[in-house]
Amino acid sequence: MTTHTVVLIPGDGIGPEVADAARRVVEAAGAPVAFLERHAGVAALDRGEEHVLPDSTVSAIREHGVALKGPCTTPIGGGFGSVNVALRKRLNLYASVRPVRSLAGVPTRYQDVDLVIVRENTEGLYSGIENRITDDVIISLKVATREACRRIARWAFDYAVRRGRRKISAFHKANIMKLSDGLFIGEARAVHEADFASVRYEEVIIDAGSMRLVQDPGQFDVILCENLYGDIMSDLCAGLVGGLGVTPGANIGDAGAVFEAVHGSAPDIAGQGVANPLALIMSAAMMLNHLAESRGDGACRDAATRIREAYDRALVEGCKTRDLGGDLGTAAFTDAVIQRLGG
Question: What range defines the domain where residue 137 resides?
C-alpha cells in the first residue's frame, strides 16, 4: 500500500486543537497517510521564523502536493498580510472549492441544501494592490485576466462533469463592472459554448442571486464566482446549513492542493478544548477523496467514505459541540466520530 505524505499545518488559536482532531480521525480510519508538520501564521513567528509563511512550509507542500491546514490569524486593518492569500498565490492554488450540504443532525431553516461554491482564488480585489492617493483617498485595484477567468471557468465545468452536478451559475456584477466582471462571465460563457454545452449554465447578478439563495437554495448547484464574491457567497451559503463549523474547504491548483477549515482561529476559546473540529475533519475527508481521484488510491476513498458516515452518524445521534447546541468538547466529539468509524 502506498503511503501519501500530507503536510499538516496546525495554524493559530484553536488550529492546533482541531488539526490534532482531524489527524486522529484520519489515522483511526486507516487512511494510508503520513503527516509531516509544518507551520504558518503567528505560530511560525512564535517558533522563530522571520515570516508568517516560511519557505520551508511552501517547499514541503510543493514537494508532497497536498496539505491539511488549520486556521491562521489575519490582523484586521494592519499588521501582516493574510497567510491564506499568500499561500494561494505562491502555490497558484487558483480554485477554491467550498461544498455546502445539509447535515441530518444539524437542523436549520433549510433542508436538503447541496451546493458547491467554486471561487477564483488569485485575482480580483484580493490581489492586494492598494494605493494611498492622499491622506483621505485610497484606491484598490480589481485585477481580472483572461487566462485566470478562463482557467477557473474550465475548472468549474470539469468539476461539474466529474461529480455529476446539474448546473453552473456564474455570479457577477457585470452590469456595473462591465470590463472586469464582463471578462469573467464572457470567458465562462465561451468555455460553456465550446466544450460543455451539455451542462446547464446561467449568469446571475450577485445581489439578485443573494436574494434568491435565501429564498430557495435549491435553485442552485455549482456557483462560480470571482474572488471577493466567492468569499462572501461561501460564508452566506455556510449559514444555510449551520455555519462555518460544518463546512469544509479546499484550494486546488495544477500541482498541489491545500485543504482547510474555512472558519477563523477563534483566539478567545483557544486552549479550552471546546472548539468544533468538524469542519477540518470534513476537509480531511475531502483531502482523502482528492488523493483517491488524483492518485488512484481506493483506500483513501474508502477511508473518506467511512469518515463521512461516522460524523453524519455522530451528529444524528446527538453528539455535538456547543456551537451546534450540544455539550461535547473537542476531544469528546472526536472520540465520538472515531467510535463510529466501523471496521
Answer: 109-241
Residue 270 placed within a domain: yes
- Cβ proximity of 123 and 285 under 8 Å: no
Distances in Å between the Cα of 134 and the Cα atoms of 9, 79, 137, 139, 157 are 40, 21, 5, 10, 44
**Domain count along the chain:** 2
Which residues have a Cβ under 8 Å from the Cβ of 208 and sit 6 or more positions away?
none
User: Which has the higher per-residue pLDDT, 1 or 241?
Assistant: 241
Sign of the torsion formed by the C-alpha atoms of 96, 102, 106 and 110: positive
Please tell me whether residue 251 adopts helix, strand or coil conformation.
Answer: strand
Tell me what the mean pLDDT of segment 16-45 comes to: 96
Q: pTM above 0.70? A: yes
Note whether residue 22 is domain-resident: yes
pLDDT per position as a tens digit, 66-84? 999 999 987 655 566 688 8
Residue 182 maps to a domain:
yes
Q: Is residue 343 assigned to a domain?
A: yes
Please tell me whether residue 119 adopts helix, strand or coil conformation: strand
Per the CB < 8 A criterion, the answer to whether 286 and 69 are in contact is no
Q: In whole numbers, what is the pLDDT of the chain averaged over residues?
A: 95
